[in-house]
Amino acid sequence: MKGKWWKYLCIVLIFYTLIMGLLGKVPRLAIVNEGIRNLYFHVPMWFGMILILLMSVIYSIRYLRSGNMVDDIWAAESTQVGMIMGILGIITGMMWAQYTWGTYWHGDPKQNGAAIGLLIYFAYSILRGAIQDEQQRGRISAVYNIFAYACLIPLLFILPRLTDSMHPGSGGNPGFNTYDLDRNMRLVFYPSIIAWTLLGWWIVSLRARLRIVEEHLQEEKLEETFAD
Amino acid sequence: MIFQEILQLVRKDIQLELRERYAINSLLLYISSTIFICYLSFSLSGQNLPQPTWNTLFWIIMLFSSIHTISKSFGNEQLSRFYYYYYLSSPEAIILAKIIYNTILLSLIALMGLGLYSLVLGYPVQDHALFLLNLVLGTLGFSGTLTLISGISAKAGNNMTLMSILSFPIIIPMLLMLIRVSKQAMDGLDRSVSWDELLNLMGLNFIVIALSYLLFPYIWRS
In this complex, do A151 and B208 lie within 8 Å of one another by their Cβ atoms? Predict the structure, then answer.
């Protein structure tokens, strides 16, 4: 039972987010209208992605220090799930952009930044595919992962500063805090960040554990064939 | 101690280069052909390119030449010599020496490239000092970022495609800052406008070089 509490918390918060997010009270605003509910689904994807990719970097650092294959598996699976959250973030953002700004791809700096971030992690998975030896793959992809994350973070801060963004809170647009994120929305928005991040981490842990079991089974199979 | 080691390694690289003259000549030809292709493709007879196009095109040519130059950092030495040199010195010295050497090489190529580029496509820059400072920061940043990536792609089979796909997304923030400062230098804006970006660029350069220094030993030992 110990160590499982966050999974229960995740289930509760996901249902809370879904129910309150779709049925709760939201302010009536021009243009966004009911679209404002996307705040509970689009924005947490980004928070989740950044946090899960951060976990992946932490596992990469641990791998470089320990050389334990388990850390490498955790790092790789985290980037996979981080990428899926990034893709979902882009899709939800594109739908939102279509209904509020009028086009799916608006050339908004945050949109472009997200696309570049995805390019980095696609390159990461191609790099993993290019190396055969397990230890070497782990080490080299860990180095790239750390380097890429360190270069991604300035990107997320620099790009929106270079050109005006239509996202709230930048380019002269007031942030959600200032006028339209009222108390009711906050009560759903913050839990929703925790909910989606925990769900992402749950998926990571399932996938990583599955991979570890698979590796063990493969090793046992190899040992059996050699024993025969 | 490490400074002497770095100095020795840089000297070794420069001597090798001066003896063979292969890399620098081929790179100069590479950048000249690229510039000439751009010039012919725009088919400008006497009139200049629009300023933003001039600027962006210059930096894109620089980016591709840099990737091309640096992708050879760890590939072109013979294997036996490679082992001999590199078991004598520490990985930290190797990466810093390679970054310094690549910066020198890139600055040379950038300056000559700029000369030829200005000759055929015009030179609409007003603040020369800022433009050159930006160019130097750019070559330092490119070599800081790309040298580590080149080490990574050398360990992963040394193919050019991998080098490009690994470096393009990572270099974008730096490239955008460089293009912005260089545009401000072209317009001759007051230097205080560019100060913020220059600081950001220096910060980025510091981050990538420090990370290369910290991370390179791990790929070297594998």
Answer: yes
Give the closest-approach CA distance of A83 to chain B in angstroms.
Answer: 15
- Three-state secondary structure string covering B88-105: HCCHHHHHHHHHHHHHHH
Contact A154 B173 (CB under 8 A): yes
Radius of gyration of chain A (CA): 20
Q: Report in angstroms the alpha-carbon separations of A106 from A13, A57, A96, A100, A214.
A: 32, 31, 11, 11, 43
Residue pair B91/B218 in contact (Cβ under 8 Å)? The answer is no
Mean pLDDT over residues B18-43, rounded? 86
| Dihedral over Cα of B158, A79, B174, B9: its sign | negative
How far is the alpha carbon of B40 from chain A, nearest alpha carbon, in Å? 31
Which one-letter DSSP state was computed for residue A103?
Answer: -
Q: Which two tokens stand for residue A125?
A: 């998975």
* Nearest chain A CA: its distance from B106 CA (Å): 21
CA dihedral (B148, B154, B159, B163) in degrees, to 10, reads: -10
Distance CA B123, CA B113 (A): 12
- Please name the residue that has the structure tokens 């190529």: B109
Tens digits of per-residue pLDDT, A6-62? 888 888 888 888 888 788 777 766 666 677 787 888 888 888 898 999 999 999 999
**B2: its two tokens:** 């490490």
CA torsion, points A5, A8, A10, A12, in degrees to nearest 10?
Answer: -140
Chain A residue numbers touching B155 (CB-CB < 8 A):
131, 136, 140
Given pLDDT bands bounded at 50, 70 and 90, which one contains residue B194?
confident
Nearest CB neighbour to B219, from listed A139, A158, A159: A139
Answering whether pTM is above 0.95, one says: no
